[in-house]
Amino acid sequence: MTLDIIHFIGLFSALLGSSTLVIYIYTMIKGQTRPHIFTWLIWSILSSIGFAAQLSENAGSGSWTLGLVAGLCATIALLSIKYGSKDLSRKDVIALICALSALIPWFIFQSPTLSVILISLINTIGFYPTFRKSWNNPYQENLLPYALSSVAMALSLLALNEITVTTSLYNITVAFSNLIFVFYALWRRKRTSLV
What is the pLDDT of residue 53? Predict the structure, then answer.
């Protein structure tokens, strides 16, 4: 692919990823979505680490998506103070501590790759509060942003300058996690409507 096409894919992926979160913010403010503050705080931390790791490995325009997503996840975490679910548990705090621990390998071993492997694992843990909340309240999440985010993360892989574990693993993990959550929430909606 030519550089222009790669930049176009990177820009399109970044805009798609950003638009999904802007939609999410809109539904939050309208009271249609009630995010879990810890999940979004965890995702802002993980996305920021992933973005920094991508920059350290020359990811190029493939990193634009994660950079914008990190900023918007932080915005959603802040807005969750007012519009989000107040259902916090001890396990949610443990998930947050796990997310913060992903910085340790980078600082101690100077290894962004180890940090990316760790944040990819922690992404699943970070999703726990939203999965838990959605078990009883499957309609509190707008699923369109999760689905479109999967597409954006997959497209961002096509725009990477360097495809390595450091530049691609987290995007792949986010794409799959979001997709799994969409199917999980749809399944829970179906199950709760049958009761």
Answer: 93
DSSP H helices in 102-164: 103-109, 112-136, 143-158
Our measurement of the distance from residue 119's CA atom to the centroid of its chain's CA atoms, rounded to an integer in Å, reads 11
By C-alpha distance, which of 114, 112, 80, 113 is closest to 96?
80
DSSP 141: S
Q: Where are the domains of the chain?
A: 3-194
Dihedral sign for Cα 127, 169, 61, 5, please. Answer: negative
Give the residue-averaged pLDDT of 105-129: 83
At 37, list the tokens. 């503050």
Which residue pairs from 91-95 have beta carbons closer than 8 angstroms and sit at least 24 positions apart in sequence?
91/128, 91/129, 91/132, 92/36, 92/38, 92/128, 92/129, 93/38, 95/38, 95/39, 95/42, 95/122, 95/125, 95/126, 95/128, 95/129
In this prediction, residue 193 carries a pLDDT of: 80
pTM of the model: 0.83
Taking only the tens place, the pLDDT of each residue in 147-175 is 999 999 999 999 999 999 999 999 999 99
In this structure, what are the phi and psi dihedrals at residue 8, rounded to the nearest 5 degrees?
-60, -45
Residue for token pair 């939609």: 23
Distance CA 160, CA 177 (A): 20
Locate 50 and state its tokens: 């992933």
